[in-house]
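Support reply, case 0932

Customer input (verbatim):
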Amino acid sequence: MDFANTEMPNQGPVPATGLPTLVPHKLVSQLKPFSRPHTVRSIWELAITLVPFFGVVSAMLAAISAGYLIALVLAPLAGLLLLRIFIIQHDCGHDAFLSKRSGNDWIGRALGVLTFTPYDYWRRSHTLHHASTGNLDARGYGDIDTLTVREFQSRSRLGRLGYRLYRHPAVLLGIGPAYLFLLRHRLPIGLMRAGVKYWVSTIATNLAIAAMMGGLILLVGWGTTLLVVIPTLLIAASTGVYLFYIQHQFETAHWDKATAWSFHDAALYGSTHLDLPQPLRWFTGNIGVHHVHHLASRIPFYRLQEVLNAYPDLRHLNRFTFAQMIRPLALTLWDEDRRRLVSFREAAAVAERSRQVSFTVYRAPDRTVGSRPNSRQ
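Our regenerated output:
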């Protein structure tokens, strides 16, 4: 597709690659043909994910008796398969997996038991995330908390320390995912007054998880169950949270105040294309093609690569490779003046330079004893 003749958007950066600027609101209508799910393909994708997952978990449960290290070797594979299950649940939440809403919802609810994620509660939070991505005045729904430089500098010393700890990789990728999937999802936090539906979602999912775990405990015992389920869940959770992080946390991300914010511009320019090699692309359900997903969320995950084939310019927009995935972890604050995400160190350096420029040293007039510059001769 040639974008050379398309009109320029009101907002949004020109891609650093020098490509013609894409027109987000026009792309939405152009991408509609890709939004139709293929039922047979969807069921196939579900089957080739669930069957290996249950097979690997069963092998882990059986391997415990021969030594935990043998079972632990399989944990990354089980975790990646559970991550793919979550991606399918995610597509159900966007009505992108099956053509009928009821089918999406019931598959999503069933998969939510495996992912420890209440489907209806999560779906609502994720919808709010899509509706407000990149909006500085609507942060807080399904996002990685992000402060502007001025907001950070205006906080107390304790407040700044708390934010630094929150943004530390050990918290973001370790403590945070464990808290999110093991504890936070047990209650409809953030939606506790939004309706009984979200309470039913969390409580019903909790009961189903308890039944699943109870059955495993009766079958193989407490120790074996926890030694298999917890590592698998935490690997999937940490990997998923990191994918979510890099999808919107990058140097040239797109943030605006509500008065200047545009959904389409924020979706396309504020999301990355994480170009992963196979088999990681398969395990992550093409979620790396996130700029397209945010612009047209009803496209099934298995059709996102079709979009890149049809619109090659999208391949290069906000593209990150596997080798470039670490750098964004150092970026922590949105610099509204420079319109980019910066590190704590960069923010401090800019603030220091600003202070040096604005500070003027006034030399006191000469007060040498005996000098009378204005006296008459």
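We compared this against your earlier run and they match. Two observations from our side: Confidence is low (pLDDT under 50) at residues 1-20, 360-364, 367-377. The beta strands are 147-148, 273-275, 319-321, 333-335, 340-342. Please reopen the case if you see a mismatch on your end.
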